[in-house]
Here is the input.
Amino acid sequence: MRIVFLGPPGAGKGTQAQRLKDYLGIAHLSTGEMLRDAEDTPLGRKAARYMLTGQLVPDDIVLGIVVQRLSEKDCSQGCLFDGFPRTVPQAEALDRMLAVRGMPLDLVLALNVPEADLNARLTARGRPDDDPKTIAERFRQYCALTQPLIDYYRLRGILRQIDASASPDKVFERIRDTIDATVSSNSP
Ligand code: B4P
Here is the structure.
């Protein structure tokens, strides 16, 4: 299966992707993690300048690391996209990458959490990009650039909304039920 996790900063994309990766046994592709892991490279240092001010990293940098990761063997059996795509051009590029490989997207899970809860989660986590000013900019970027993807995928009939305001265990239960329902409705 190929699944996208969509949601505002702190919605729990990374948290739930870890669990789902183990449940489905498919590759996990987190662009945030890959960009942070590259911090000692010129590309990583360039990306960090955007991340630390709450901006999205430019599409060409993100797409470069995704193309490379998608060509690794473990992605051929399925892939969980965590925090990617985050812009319409990224979504269009993903469509092209998957079309070339004959592997369509199966599901897009939109994680919904009230903004006050998101702020509390991020402030408690305390990553370098979790200070109040940067968080505010990340939300602004999400609304302007990422939220349009909700309609992009809704129109294709592959979007599912998940109430992600409960505990991580409860949210995972909802995600698992949604995936199981999709698998059984797709099987002959
Ligand atoms: P990401 O690494 O994707 O991180 P995120 O959106 O902040 O958080 P996520 O939703 O994964 O939340 P998490 O599970 O960690 O992005 C960071 C930055 O990288 C972006 O701002 C951007 O600059 C750049 N970037 C990444 N991908 C990009 C792309 N495609 N294009 C351009 N730029 C890109 O959870 C957050 C906290 O909440 C944790 O402490 C967790 O323990 C807690 N939590 C999770 N679920 C909870 C629950 N149910 N209840 C209570 N707490 C919970």
